[in-house]
């Protein structure tokens, strides 16, 4: 008993799971693991000077039996002067209405109840009885599903939850050790008959795979817990490195993120994977198991030999490669914008660009980033409009005998494929293209003022900081 308590106490202190004055909510099913947890903290609450509370959820999956579990926990808490919160949640009715995985729904509802209790009673830490055997099962199940390091790290000793943290102080001990500890304490517990069935993935691993591993080495669960802890520490260090490198590889550009492929591919593979995961965390709140598959697709896109390529991501996001960059943005199904008439002497904003046209001499205040183009009004058919591209659009460029197709111009100027349909194009009343904003102007314009020029056009790229 002393050895068990010392091992758990050392783990708690190494992981900094508990501080003096903490208010702890112990999740207790009434089973051997959680009852062992309650007994442990009853013994050590004065040592850490913590307040203890117990929470129990009856999922109503085993009718009267599960209700008896609730009564068992409530009686124990009353006998030991522990405040207890308990509830019954109609999981069968929820399953009938929603469908889905019963284990996932149980977990969702259970943790929602814990969250509610913590907020209502100013409790800062939820304590669960996950142990080394749970860690081994979790790691093996993750390995069976996919080969991601993130999954193989297993269960964390602590993580943010509700208004505080969820902590797992039993990760350093096995289920067998917990049972022996509870028996020595003279404690009792409830058996959940559903744990004996092979209906759930975890139970199949527990009943058939774990025993084989323990035959080879009885300490395999402890080894798994130590491995998970090392992986978590290594991953934390690599994630910090990836965070420090992120801004040199990825930039925020308006409503999108832009990944620079050349800089990205110079990073070690371990950082590349984590940089992508950081990026996905900006795009999504929760992807869970999908992260690994999406990361692999993005890595392949970075290595693609094609100048332009695109992949569709969840929730209508797109990763569009254009030469040396990949743009990540949400696909918007918008109506074709109507052409907008240009008013002389007024600034106009178009999809990342500003346009201003005025008679000379002008008195407009112009930013350094704006480029001036001079022209003669008599050579242009007014009024002017800005529209998006059409099929067979061409622009007459200075020094070229024949007009150049816009489709070719976009390719030559390396305009991302996904941006071409929305690019602003200035035309006159005859629909002749005068300028592809921010790219090229036609032969009637000059950056140097000529003798007969009487008007000026300013084109400015809108900075993300404005």
From TrEMBL:
Residues that coordinate or bind ATP: 29-34
One of the record's GO molecular function terms: tRNA(Ile)-lysidine synthase activity
Reaction equation(s) it catalyzes: cytidine(34) in tRNA(Ile2) + L-lysine + ATP = lysidine(34) in tRNA(Ile2) + AMP + diphosphate + H(+)
The protein, known as: tRNA(Ile)-lysidine synthase
Subcellular location, record wording: Cytoplasm
Any GO CC annotation of this UniProt entry: cytoplasm
Record family assignment: Belongs to the tRNA(Ile)-lysidine synthase family.
Matching NCBIfam families: lysidine_TilS_C (TIGR02433), lysidine_TilS_N (TIGR02432)
Domains as described in the record: The N-terminal region contains the highly conserved SGGXDS motif, predicted to be a P-loop motif involved in ATP binding.
PANTHER family referenced in this protein's UniProt entry, alphabetically: TRNA(ILE)-LYSIDINE SYNTHASE-RELATED
Annotated function: Ligates lysine onto the cytidine present at position 34 of the AUA codon-specific tRNA(Ile) that contains the anticodon CAU, in an ATP-dependent manner. Cytidine is converted to lysidine, thus changing the amino acid specificity of the tRNA from methionine to isoleucine.
UniProt-listed Enzyme Commission number(s): 6.3.4.19
Organism expressing this protein natively: Ureibacillus thermophilus
Top enzyme category: ligase
Residues covered by the Lysidine-tRNA(Ile) synthetase C-terminal domain: 384-458
Any one GO BP annotation for this protein: tRNA modification
Keywords: ATP-binding, Cytoplasm, Ligase, Nucleotide-binding, tRNA processing
